Amino acid sequence: MGEVKTDKAKTDKAPKKNFWKGIKSEFKKITWPDRQLMIRQSIAVVCVSVVMGVIIAILDFGLQYGVDFITKL
Fold this sequence. Notes:
- The protein is an all-alpha fold.
- It is about 75% helix and about 0% strand.
- It has three helices and no strands.
């Protein structure tokens, strides 16, 4: 059968130097939020977390009451 030729460029790993240059160039593309936007988004995350915590607590107490009621029958 014929020989299988491999492309050396595809098999060699890129040097670490190019990796860090790539990371640096990608970080330059990031658009960071301003202070006001960050504060608003942080407040939104905290509010949603509190609301979800309350909903989960209500469901937990309800299910606990239901299981206790069924086991006492």
